[in-house]
Amino acid sequence: MTGYQAGDRAAADAFADQCSAILLRFFVSRGSSRQEAGDLLQDTWLRIHKARHSWRPNEPVVPWLLAIARHTRADAWRKAYRSTQREESLEGAAEPVSAQSFNEEAGDVQRLLLHLPESQREVLILLKVLGLSIDEAARATSTTAGAVKQKAHRAYETLRRVLASSPARGKERT
Question: How far apart are CA 20 and CA 22, in angstroms?
Answer without folding.
Answer: 5
